[in-house]
Design brief:
Elements: H1 2-17, H2 31-67, H3 73-84, E1 92-94, E2 101-109, E3 120-127, E4 136-143, E5 150-156, E6 166-173, E7 180-186, E8 192-193, E9 201-204, E10 208-211, E11 213-214, E12 217-222, H4 225-231, E13 254-257
Helix pairs in contact: 1-2
């Protein structure tokens, strides 16, 4: 209505100022065209604003819905353990539906650091109901490693030398681009080793006082000493115990480790 009054005022003013006959429809003054353009601009602007408001509302609603995850008491317990230092600060507890818990932690180059400084790894452990799950699912994913090389994976008592008690769990062979992964199912969260003649006890961050020695870290080794000597260009490297079979000490040095003092699982 305001624009109609505006148009009428422009028309009357133009008519009052005109000394001769009123202009015909064949020769209109440009004020009508200006008024119509203004009306069109206001209409388009209002429609665009309504569209943006609608899109914004949908986006906010979707974000709030995605962020709504039911409370998982076991996942929250693990987060608190990271917070208080019972688990290493490199451990990330992912959002998950109870009773499942998912933790991730990175691996860092150790024996290959000088030759492959960008080597990296990510370990993901998925655990079901802690009271009756028969195994955890463990994925080890590596990047920028020596290409076409087989490595052994161990759960270990200590992340770095002297490593302490260990348990062999899997092999991983890299591709030509240095990437690779392996998936295994075993007991990871309460892995332990012991000498049955003198088992002893140890304090596990997740379970409390347990039998044997808890294995709360993960490392990777060259399965072949010859591969390690060639890749690292070092013939003085000595063999290690970190692969089974004959001959003894045919494995190479540690390649990757979680590198933490506090447990990672």
């Amino acid at each position: 209505m305001r624009f109609l009054h505006f148009i009428r005022r422009i028309t009357l003013r133009n008519a009052g100022d005109h000394k001769g006959p009123l202009p015909t429809l064949l020769h209109p003054r440009p004020y009508w065209l200006l008024a119509l353009i203004l009306v069109a601009i206001m209409h388009v602007s209002g429609a665009a604003a309504a569209t943006l408001t609608s899109v914004g509302s949908v986006s906010i609603h979707s974000t709030e819905h995605a962020a709504s995850v039911p409370y998982n008491p076991e996942a929250e317990r693990l987060r608190q353990m990271v917070h208080n230092g019972s688990l290493a600060q490199t451990v990330h507890v992912l959002s998950s539906l109870a009773p499942t818990t998912i933790v991730q932690f990175p691996l860092f180059p150790s024996g290959i650091k000088a030759a492959f400084p960008n080597a990296s790894g990510l370990v993901t452990i998925v655990r079901g109901n802690r009271d009756n799950a028969i195994a955890d699912t463990v994925t080890v994913d590596v990047q920028h490693m020596p290409p076409n090389i087989t490595f052994t994976i161990f759960y270990i008592e200590l992340a770095n030398k002297p490593f302490g008690n260990v348990e062999y769990v899997a092999d991983l062979t890299t591709r030509g681009d240095g990437s690779g992964e392996t998936i295994l199912q075993n007991i990871a969260f309460v892995a332990f080793a012991m000498d049955a003649r003198n088992p002893g006890t140890s304090l596990d961050p997740l379970e409390g006082l347990t039998s044997g020695t808890n294995l709360n870290h993960l490392g990777m080794w060259f399965s072949s000493l010859q591969d390690a000597q060639k890749v690292l260009n070092d013939d003085t490297l000595q063999g290690t115990i970190f692969d089974g079979g004959s001959p003894p000490l045919h494995a190479g040095p540690q390649a990757m480790t979680d590198g933490q003092t506090a447990p990672v699982f």
